[in-house]
Design goal:
By secondary structure, the chain is an alpha/beta fold. The chain has 8 helices and 12 strands. The termini are far apart.
């Protein structure tokens, strides 16, 4: 009897592009399918896993404090094998990479590891592109690799472009003749569908040469922990000052904060010097507030 394979889709994109938003859209769109999720975060604390809705916690695997593509490659492959053995009835695997992951190495196990190929059907890679910050992201070689290796491109935050600007203004890199038309995504809606892959219309990517060069040397993360909840107004004033001071070095900021005398957690998301804070779940425990800043800052 031929073993039923789990379909695998990789979601990539530079820091702050909106990968977790796309994951949540996909989970909400297919409530009848059984998903597993591999989350890779650059930093010692996993923030994105708290923002995922729709995956059973036992089927959510975290790879922290390192990139799939370098320091935790072996752990990544082991997780893929363990997941398939423990949850053979899962329909789909979504892999959300860190924003500085080299895509070739993330794809490689699905093409070159016989055990993984036996258990998974690799569908393709989705690259999420931030409409507001794309021109800056193209300065980073890893962002260009993510773009060129993707089968499908999703443009996020297009609804936030200034009046008169369209996605043609984000200056997508030259893609040749076989690049798919981008799919639009806002905070509450996306036209992306897993059927982009199920129809078989996408071409499989061609791997870049694997080298020992680390394209994200010089990118590091700073983690701020708050065991004692700060005053909300004082914290937001400090964060605005800090990000304004370091806006050239900060690529991404994210966190889940608990404030003094506030009944809700607050979710923080930001790119560069701009950021936003939205109300989250009710505070039902005393976990620390955590803020993670990723960029080219001095550690």
């Amino acid at each position: 009897m031929v073993q039923r394979k789990i379909t695998a889709t990789i979601i990539t994109g530079f820091l702050g592009a909106g990968k977790t938003t796309l994951v949540n859209h996909v989970l909400a769109r297919y409530p009848d399918r059984q998903f597993a999720l591999v989350e890779n975060e650059f930093g010692e604390v996993a923030i994105d896993t708290h923002l995922i809705r729709g995956v059973n916690a036992s089927r959510l695997f975290e790879l922290k404090n390192g990139c799939i593509c370098c320091t935790i490659t072996d752990e990544y492959e082991q997780v893929l094998l363990e997941l398939a053995d423990r949850y053979p009835h899962v329909d789909d695997l979504l892999i959300e990479t860190t924003g500085v992951a080299e895509p070739a190495t993330v794809i490689r196990p699905f093409l070159h590891n016989p055990e993984i190929r036996e258990k998974y059907e690799y569908q393709g890679m989705v690259c999420v592109i931030d409409a507001l910050h794309a021109p800056d992201s193209w300065k980073h070689p890893v962002a260009l690799q993510q773009y060129y290796m993707a089968d499908v491109h999703v443009v996020s935050k297009s609804d936030k472009l200034p009046n008169g600007e369209t996605i043609s203004n984000i200056r997508l890199p030259y893609s040749g003749g076989n690049m798919s038309d981008p799919v639009m995504m806002t905070k509450h809606h996306t036209g992306f569908s897993l059927r982009n892959f199920w129809t078989g219309n996408t071409s499989k990517p061609v791997l870049f040469p694997i080298t020992n060069e680390r394209l994200h040397d010089g990118i590091n993360s700073l983690t701020f922990r708050y065991p004692d909840p700060p005053v909300k107004e004082e914290f937001t004033e400090w964060l605005s000052w800090y990000l304004d001071l370091h806006k050239r070095e900060v690529y991404r900021v994210k966190g889940i904060m608990r404030f003094r005398n506030e009944p809700f957690y607050y979710i923080i998301q930001g790119v560069g010097g701009s950021w936003e804070m939205t109300e989250g779940d009710l505070v039902l425990d005393d976990r620390d507030g955590v803020l993670v800043v990723i960029g080219a800052m001095a550690s």
